[in-house]
Amino acid sequence: MSTLATIDAKAAPSQELLQMILNLSLEEIANLRRLLDQAEQLKLNGKEGIKPRRFIDPDDGGPVWEFGFIDEFDRASCYEVIEDDV
Amino acid sequence: MIPRPAKNESVAVDAMIWIYNHNRESPYYSCCRKVRNLISGGEFKGCIALQTATEIVGAVSNPRNFRLPGGHFDFSSALNMVTDIFKTPNSRLILPNASTLSTAVDLCRKYNLKRKQWYDAVLAATLLNNGVHVLYTMNDKDFLPITELSLINPFTETLRPGSMPVEWNLASTTIPRQTPDRPSSPTDGKTS
Predict the structure, then answer these.
(1) Could you say which of B40, B55, B61 has the minimum Cβ distance to residue A49?
(2) Domain B10-160 in this protein, CATH class
(3) What pLDDT sits at residue A8?
């Protein structure tokens, strides 16, 4: 994993970073993915999610929830398992 | 105006439309809310596929889908939201059946779908096996190869008619002249 030491994710533009990653072997990429997942889980540790505010829309009588969802993602992400209780 | 089928038609609604029509902060809230209100107002019959419910719970509880770290739903709230959605008046749950797997496989082979389109194929197969031929989706681009389905994008207000028969509400719907094999213009829906 010595190559990883040369990757500066904050400094490198994404294309440059991608090129660096492409220079890794498949095994190194798998290790990198595991490290990134682990780092994400550590960052999320203790963040079990919010209970968004729910209210009834007076115009149509239906429920509305308030939350900051992003508007672009892949359907497959709906099936991801995120270990948020590490 | 959002294209719509006739009253007696059953229509499926994709997960993202359900999520957006419950999320007032989404730029898609208004158009997706109209779809919900067309169903609850009896304009046509709404359907929620089991995998759509699965996707709703998975999407809103996934931290990667939120603007701020930790902004995702806790599991209990995700369950409450999908329960809310199931209570939408004039809508029903549809399930995969014994034919759904083979139908999904057939769709993948027939249209040379790729691995990442598997979930789209399973959803399409569930709809077709339940006699549902219309899908409201923000991701109509994903379903374009599956010509059996009629696709409606409520954001672009476009209809791609499918090869299966559908009765349309002609007062609010203009049927494009394209054949199913030659889809209408690409959509600019921003979801992927």
Answers:
(1) B61
(2) alpha beta
(3) 59
Question: What does each C-alpha distance from B148 to A4, A26, A67, B55 come to in angstroms?
Answer: 48, 40, 35, 23
| Closest partner CB to B28 (pick from A40, A54, A71) | A71
Q: What is the pLDDT of residue B192?
A: 36
Residues of B in contact with A78 (CB under 8 A): 15, 54-56, 58-59, 62, 119
**What is the domain partition of chain B in residue ranges?**
10-160
Helix (H) or strand (E) holding B85, with range, is helix B75-86
ipTM of the complex, rounded to two decimals: 0.79
Residue B184: count of CB within 10 angstroms of its CB: 16
DSSP bridge partners of B91: B46
Residue ranges in chain A whose pLDDT is less than 70: 1-12, 45-46, 82-86
Q: Do A49 and B58 touch (CB under 8 A)?
A: no
Q: What is the percent of chain B where pLDDT is above 70?
A: 92
Asked if A84 reaches chain B (Cβ–Cβ under 8 Å), the answer is yes
Residue pair B51/B119 in contact by the 8 Å Cβ criterion: yes
Reported pTM:
0.82
Three state DSSP letters for B98-156 = CCHHHHHHHHHHHCCCCHHHHHHHHHHHHHHHCCCCEEECCCHHHHCCCCCCEEEECCC
Contact yes or no for A65 and B15 at CB 8 A: no
Of A52, A60, A79, the CB nearest to B77: A52
The per-residue pLDDT for B185 is: 41
Average pLDDT over residues B164-180: 80
